[in-house]
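#dry-run=false #mode=assembly
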Amino acid sequence: MRLNGRFKPYNGPRLRLVVGFLGLSFCAIFIRLAIVQLLEHASLRDLATRQYSRNIILHPERGRILDRHGRVLATSVPVPSAYAIPQEIDNPDAAARQVAEVLGQPLSTVQHQLTSTAPFVWLARQLPPEVGERIQKLNLRGVQVLQETRRFYPKRHLASQVLGFVGVDGLGLGGLEHLYNRELTGTPRQVILQRDASGRTVQIIEGDPSDQPRGADLYLTLDERLQYVAEKEIAARVQETQAKSGLVVVMHPPTGDILALASYPFFNPNDFQDSKQRVWQRNRAVTDPVEPGSTFKLVTASAALEENVARLTDTFYCENGFVVRNGRRLRDHHGYGLLSFPQVIEKSSNIGTAKIAARLSDNQLYTYIRRFGFGEKSLVNLPGEEEGLIRPPKKWTKPTHDSLAFGQEVTVTPLQLLTAYAAVANGGWLMRPRIVEHLVQGDDTQFFAPQVRHQVLSSQTIERINDILIGVVERGTGKLAAVEGYTVAGKTGTAQKVERGGYSHSKILASFVGYVPAEAPQLAIVVIIDEPLRAKWGGEAAAPVFKRVAQQALYSLQVPSRQNQMLSLETALKLPSAPQPEDHEPARFVATVGGQSGEREPARVALSTGWKIDKDRRP
Amino acid sequence: MPRPPQAAAPTPLIARGRARRIASRHVGMTLLLSATMVLGGILLYLWPQMRLVGLGYRQSKLLAQRTHMLQRQKELQVELSSLRQLRRIEDIAAQHLGLRPPQAAQVIYVRPGQQHVVSQRRE
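#status=ok
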């Protein structure tokens, strides 16, 4: 083909065939390329992305619940859960034996789970970390461990009826956990990672996996210390009196803040599935209305004074303890003759109170009952609140007016009763009870400010009622509620429980509601003991609990007593050493710095031993 | 007179061969340079990619460590909260340390704003 040193182009049919073939091949490649790039681009890109990238949904960590000082009452901790993919298990019998031994479950149960036809089976959820590790170490194909979060209540039964509990799937099923489930749960977030063939993360494509989303933290108005004191004292008193149950609610009257809400028997929310505890999971301070008994005389006395139908100097003949009025027999626990208006309340005479109420019309009495917030929800942010029962005057029977005067034919929740007394304590303003102070979500804080519902009484009536309630504790039925060094105002109640269409003679509800210090109330407390066997009256069964709770709460809140005013530190340090106390045991003395309400962590200073306050040197 | 012999002029074939050798050397050099540049370019491109992958693995490992540490911190916080149960503290104070609550008259309330004096005193 070489001719004279030059190439002669070959232009034969074979070449044309090759060129044609190559041309067609290139055309086919271009067409395929066009299809891939233009038509199948999106789907193929998705396919590729799916192969090397992995979308991870970061489920938020459930927010914590804390007390007013930031002490943790409920939190979530990661715990292992074991699951199986039965189709992947090579030898179910051998695997079942090993798994059953580690989990401490019956072999037959595990065998049944591992031979299931389901694609996914939970073996055990929310295990202790060491059990999770042991399952992983078994290294069984088809048996895996994944991390879940479990709600944990480090203070166990403390405020359990308020907090509620969370199910195994992380859903709030009771109490504040249920009411604020959405806020506590938070919003899930997506992260996209690039992974290699062995599943290791190569690159973060979208989002920040280290930034774990969180639900909102719930700060309550509860004070852990006061809650502890309330629970300790109510439990002790219920056991002492062999009662069925008991509850204490402590409120800060100026704001309506609930500082403690204890209901005994308690339940442990860490073990909420225990059926024996289920009956005590209800927050009876808001869910169970009861007849208030004599504590309701506050309404009658207030209405009579506010409407000027009775004066403090008026006297009432109490029929020596028995009378039939409006077709109903009325009894007093002691026979009294002539009593003044304040004495009627101090001695808790039903007959005297009915006679005071007789000066009010049905509508007047009903108006004041409603004005004190009875018959409607207090709007506290707790689930399951009942409004109680008060019938309108047109549905009253003949004895209803008398019965209402001393707290029968009406049902109220303990919280409603406390809110009414708190209104007297704070100068006549009915507050909306508050148990959630604020929510913190990242940098955002949502406050729930104290809310005044309306004014109940004038300041003049408040002063008179205050004096009467002080008299109840100093001279009347509530002497056991007196707290040394403080002026206590309150009222006892002994309500017969309704049984088979009538009032029971054996089953009673003993109660005491009051506030302290009466001059500038910082605490309003209601105590209810259900069916005590050993002490039959409110003044005997419930008043001592008020005293103990108030004493320790005042101490904790640094409210100085009359004998124990605030000193400057210099003065306190100059106090002379005193002889040892009478029992010759070394006593520890505590100086408390602060005293401002709302102070977060007041410093406590142990000064010395053997000091005594010298009255002459007190400023 | 005979003419002196003249230097023979290079034949066109030799000149062409030399030129071809020179040209092919240039082509070789160019190709080598190009290949080196391409290789360098590839290395320049791949090195940060490889480094990125390596850092990705390292980050992934550190994140796992961080998660583990946070989990441990959480467990310790829960344990701390459990240990701070007031009932437990009261039991220890009363039973192990022999402490008892002070009587009302034994308590001194110090006015606010004195903390600095207290801290000095404690030192």
